[in-house]
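[SOLVED] Need 3D model of a two-part complex

Original post:
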Amino acid sequence: MLLSGENWKPHRFWARLCVLCTVGFGLWFASAAARQPSWPGGSSAVGLTCGLVGGAIVVFEFALWLRKKVRARRLGKAQRWLRAHIWLGLLSVPVLLIHSGFRFGGPLSATLMVLLLAVVASGLWGLYMQSRLPRRLLEEFPGENIASQIARRCRELENEAAQLVATVCGLEKKEAPEENGEAYVQVGGGKQVAAFTPRTMAGCEPLARFFENTAAPYLRQGRSAAPLLAHVGGAADLFGHVRGQVPPEAHAAVDVLEDLCSQRRQLDQQARTHLILHCWLLVHFPLSVALVILMAVHIVAAFKYY
Amino acid sequence: MALPRIPLKYFKTISPLDTWKGRLGWIASGVCVLWVGASAWMGKEVHFHASRGQVASVHQVWNDRCSTCHVPFQAMSSHSWTPGFLPFLHPAAASEQKCQSCHAGPDHHAGTMPALSCGSCHREHRGAEASLVHMGDADCTQCHRNLKAHYGAIARSAFEPPIHNSVPAFKEGLHPKFRSVQKDPGQLRFSHAQHMTPGVPAIDPLTKQPGGGLWTLGDIAPSYRERYRNQQPAEQRQDSDFVHLSCASCHRLETDDFNLTPAQISELPAAAQPARSSGAYMLPITYENQCKACHPLSVAERLPDGKLREVAVPHRLQPDALQKHLGDYFTAQAARGQTGFGDRPAAVPLPGKLPQGALQPSLAELVARNLKNAQEDLYARPIKKNCALCHYLEKETAGEQVTWKVVPTQTPQVWLRHARFDHAAHRALDCRACHAAGYTSVDSTDVLIPDIDNCVQCHAPPASHGGKVSGGARHHCTECHRYHNAAHPAQGLGALRRGAPHPVGIEDFLRGKLEKP
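Solution:
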């Protein structure tokens, strides 16, 4: 896990800083509250200090996005930024709660508090996901592709399968779409079927029909086009049925096609896992944007009417 | 089968996740800007919904008009921390001018220290139901914990002694005894024990205890009888039953509760009949309302034919004025008896001679004798229903001339001058729970207003000792005390010095334009 074992050492400094600041501000708040009839608000000494500190933390937290945008400039180590991001983000909750005097206040301040808690909660969810899913990706997807290239790889699989079936069934080959003039690199990975040299064989019409109706849509669109192929058992049944309809010498081609569908299945699962791993950002980032904008409005209004 | 290929610059590919992240970020920005813009456009003022909470209900009309109370970039409270490195922030000064547009907020005492802004103690934005006047003890004890440190330029003579230097809490030993109930300033003879005894027996002058001379309902004048009959227990309402007074026979919070007839109402001073009484204090005791039914003032008049007649005497006149009143009355009565008195020409004295009295010498003597007897009846014989029964008198003798003077009663209407008490809040309690001696006190110098030891039975933190419970009622300083205008404790909320210095019209009031133009 991210924060276990040897990974914990670099976090120790930040954890201690977080605890110390929380306890320090907490004691200051408690001592101020004991002297007043109601808990200190944002304009008190402890409240304003916590507000300034919390605001600075929020700005720093948001700066991680800028750091990633200009990563080539190497503004400090990314790991260090991330550690600071995690722990200062956690620290922002008690600090800003103290700043608020543990009150929601009016519409703007209540919205800010809700946004802060939602951002931190989504961040904690993301931290948990980041500590669990990468290992699962490593274990379950040995042929893991770069996530942004999954769609492209699926197109490659479809083209390969089309070429194979056209050759085996004696159909007219369709040319693969022209690549744009980019440079490419080949990457290896995944289990491959034993080498097979495609050639035209008689009696492979069922294979062509199967490919046209089921396999090609699946390779193109995924599980929505052929739900049976999305499951290992269902795919095995289907391909077993196809083998029964074609001559034995075409079975190797069926095996290759089955393998291509299996890769497609893995790519689907990988894409889903990748989405689960990163979907929290669809909540975390927009809410952070809203938090920063409204925090700026709050600062102006709070100083104007304090 | 071909190996996978990826473009060299694959990292520049924007995934759908990144695309949606960006879109949602822009949407979030747009929503925020729209909200801020809408609140600026739709609000009475631009405040961005930045209020830290709803204002108290008394200020509700300006809930959306921040400028009514706030001066931009200036603190409301003297306790607000204004960092020196933020030059656009200023400590509280002009903001309290806004408060004083409506609330004069007179000083606690002249020259009190420290100088605090209104917002230092009166905290707003705590919801519509919050009180702006009930605050924690810390606001008071910041000075009263050690008053000497805050005397500053105050002259000691400005205060009524004694001044207690340290009053940190409402607790025996920490809060001083109530100084205004240590001694009764009243100059009126009255025995609660006598009046609370059924029959209201006369007081034995030797033992000073009630004994003999019992009153029945039939002894009360007919015009007052029904009022006292209705107060009696149900089984004791015959004319022959003894008069049975209770606390409420004389002490009421509302004039209507006396069930007075129109004639009786007309006798009462207007000040004893406040409209819509708040119920905080008992109505003042007046002779006309509480005493006259059993203590009618009268003197005997001897008529020219030798018969005696009782003459009613007005209350509330000093002896010299009363003598003049009775003199005029007796003279008029005597003159009425003479035939043709009204037609007789007035005698014109010869130069150098005094005019002879219009009355016949015997009638003039009659008038003089009636006046002398009246003076003795009213002032010299306390056993009768006359002034001397209840009032203290000063007698001055100059030869044969005796002059009397009634000492002003000085019975306080409000005993706790520097604190507020509300009887209406305590009406669930029996009178004797606090005024235990109300049925047993024989001496009018007894003070029947309880001291702090009675109050702390309820107004203390809740506790339980030996099966007996105590405390639980609010016991903050502001429960009884008020800060402003303490130099004039007898003044209430209606006093001019508490009002707005510049009253405004309705439009300006609603718009929060309350300052002097």
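Edit: The beta strands of chain A are 184-186.
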